[in-house]
């Protein structure tokens, strides 16, 4: 870096850009992951230490004008580029808003320019304040954009086709309509249930409405959106969020404000299942558990087991695993005693399963044909 006349910070940035598109990028992501939060915190601490608050008071007008120009010009350029490349209007707004602030690379450039005497110290201080304040505008700008999109997509259009749910009182609210939620929605619709969908993906909202779903765009962790969707009159809410934190937030919100609403939730694995149980959710589904059990049943049949026995084995395993899941809700995950208990539970599961299957083999009667 010294031979090229580059600072350590600039050299690190260039190295990161080059490696980001290499075959080593996944390995680098894994290596950096434990330190990501620490380094991010260190970055903002260093920004705060470099910031001269006095400049904000002495050059308030220049700072405000600079922030306004930076955010306006950059977001305008980004919006124009997004339009040229054919992005949808809603995506263009979000794209321009989330990248409207000055980037962290500005600090590297300004420091390099100051070290080469291209910037005076007072100019450097002023530019640092402008870039830092532009970063602070991003959350506010995104809230404004989010409200604009919510108003647009949740507004009722008289010319729209009549949605599948014509009633304002849905029986079921589905939060999230990805692969998991779509299966649930199709099953409910096939049984003539009135459903309302809450979806955060703007691009999915228009598609869902064209197919006749009643959809609200927005964040289901907001109480007002749940009220607007009819949570006070609905019988059930099915939460299929990708993020466990969002799922738990919606669960607590419903328990507090809609106590008569039956809560059903998606869990990605055992950890999320434990969290839902501890939160008082009785109806949940681990997204890969049932499909894995079904494939396991078919594997038993390919190994020569009678279809009836394979089905019974599947049901016994499901029941015993759920019992173990409820018994092993850990107060502190990762504890040595907890790990020992898990191993013991696994042995108990195998023994119980063996006894149950022996009992079944003595009462064998069932189907003779495959499904």
UniProtKB/TrEMBL annotation:
GO terms for molecular function: antiporter activity; potassium ion transmembrane transporter activity. Pfam families: Na_H_Exchanger, TrkA_N. This is NEM-activable K(+)/H(+) antiporter. GO terms for biological process: proton transmembrane transport. PANTHER family: K(+) EFFLUX ANTIPORTER 3, CHLOROPLASTIC. Gene3D superfamilies: 1.20.1530.20, NAD(P)-binding Rossmann-like Domain. One of its GO terms (cellular component) is endomembrane system. PROSITE patterns: RCK_N (PS51201). Residues 169-288 form the RCK N-terminal domain. Keywords: Antiport, Ion transport, Membrane, Potassium, Potassium transport, Transmembrane, Transmembrane helix, Transport. It is found in: Endomembrane system. The chain crosses the membrane at residues 6-25, 37-57, 63-81, 124-142. It comes from Serratia odorifera. It is a multi-pass membrane protein.
């Amino acid at each position: 870096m010294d031979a090229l006349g580059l600072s350590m910070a600039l050299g690190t940035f260039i190295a990161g850009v080059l490696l980001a598109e290499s075959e080593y990028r996944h390995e680098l992501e894994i290596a950096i992951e434990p330190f990501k939060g620490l380094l991010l915190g260190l970055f903002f601490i260093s920004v705060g230490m470099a910031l001269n608050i006095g400049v904000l008071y002495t050059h308030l007008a220049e700072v405000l004008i600079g922030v306004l120009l930076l955010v306006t010009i950059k977001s305008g350029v980004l919006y124009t580029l997004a339009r040229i490349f054919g992005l949808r209007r809603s995506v263009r707004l979000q794209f321009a808003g989330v990248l409207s602030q000055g980037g962290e690379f500005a600090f590297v450039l300004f420091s390099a320019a100051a070290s080469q005497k291209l910037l005076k110290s007072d100019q450097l201080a002023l530019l640092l304040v402008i870039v830092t304040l532009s970063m602070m505008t991003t959350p506010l700008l995104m809230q404004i954009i989010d409200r604009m999109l919510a108003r647009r997509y949740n507004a009722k259009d008289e010319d729209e086709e009549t949605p599948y749910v014509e009633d304002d009182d849905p029986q079921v609210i589905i939060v999230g309509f990805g692969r998991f939620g779509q299966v649930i929605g199709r099953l409910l619709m096939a049984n003539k249930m009135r459903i309302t969908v809450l979806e955060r993906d703007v691009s999915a909202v228009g598609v869902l409405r064209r197919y006749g779903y009643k959809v609200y765009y927005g964040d289901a962790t907001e109480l007002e959106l749940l009220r607007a969707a009819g949570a006070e009159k609905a019988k059930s809410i099915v939460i299929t969020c990708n993020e466990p934190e969002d799922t738990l937030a919606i669960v607590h919100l419903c328990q507090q404000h809609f106590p008569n609403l039956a809560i059903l939730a998606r869990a990605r694995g055992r950890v999320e299942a434990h969290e839902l149980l501890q939160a008082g959710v009785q109806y949940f589904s681990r997204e890969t558990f049932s499909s894995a059990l079904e494939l396991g049943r078919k594997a038993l049949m390919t190994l020569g087991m009678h279809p009836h026995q394979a089905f019974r084995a599947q049901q016994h395993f499901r029941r015993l695993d759920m019992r173990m899941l409820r018994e092993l809700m850990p107060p502190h995950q990762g504890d040595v005693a907890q790990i020992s208990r898990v191993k013991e539970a696994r042995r108990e599961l195998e023994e119980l399963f063996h006894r149950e299957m022996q009992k079944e083999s003595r009462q064998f009667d069932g189907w003779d044909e495959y499904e």
